[in-house]
């Protein structure tokens, strides 16, 4: 767990530019570093750097879906401990179950609120929301 003084790094893997920028802006409070990827392979490559404290991952992505990416992140020793939260409009119980089976730490359904994302970051950082 990073200390409060070290940067908290978030990776957003989302193919929709509007949503990607919206989430980035919601999290841009000056205490976070937020990187973004627009395709599955690009996001997986970035995730494998092992420098992220949180990965927000869409399920439906070009070239490689989010569930596959989640499984690959969780299978690699250097990234297995990184919390991966699915950020998706898919809301059926089967979708939530599939994400859990892939190793997702949680599931955030679109549309979501900025306060919901900031509460998650605060929880992972161990700071009050």
Strand order, sheet with most strands: 2-1-3-4-5
Per CATH, the superfamily is Response regulator
| Highest-level CATH class | Alpha Beta
Q: What's the Cα radius of gyration?
A: 13 Å
Number of helix segments?
Answer: 5
Question: End-to-end span in angstroms?
Answer: 16 Å
How many strands, what sense, and barrel or not for the largest sheet? 5 strands, parallel
What is the CATH topology descriptor?
Answer: Rossmann fold
Shape: globular
Strand share of the residues? Answer: 15-25%
What is the total domain count? 1
Class by helix and strand content? Answer: alpha/beta
Low-confidence stretches: none
* Named CATH architecture: 3-Layer(aba) Sandwich
The number of E-state strands comes to: 5
What integer is the average pLDDT?
Answer: 89
> Considering DSSP H and I runs of 4 or more, what fraction of the residues is helical?
25-40%
Q: Helix-strand pattern, N to C?
A: EHEHEHEHEH
């Amino acid at each position: 767990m990073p200390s409060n003084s070290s940067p908290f790094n978030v990776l957003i893997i989302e193919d929709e530019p509007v949503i990607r920028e919206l989430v980035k802006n919601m999290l841009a409070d000056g205490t976070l570093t937020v990187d973004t990827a627009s395709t599955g392979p690009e996001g997986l490559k970035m995730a494998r750097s092992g420098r992220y404290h949180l990965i927000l991952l869409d399920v439906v992505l070009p070239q490689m879906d989010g569930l596959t990416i989640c499984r690959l992140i969780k299978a690699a020793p250097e990234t297995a401990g990184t919390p991966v939260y699915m950020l998706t409009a898919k809301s059926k119980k089967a979708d939530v179950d599939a994400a859990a089976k892939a190793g997702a730490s949680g599931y955030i359904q679109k549309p979501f609120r900025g306060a919901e994302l900031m509460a998650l970051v605060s929880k992972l950082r161990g700071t009050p929301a």
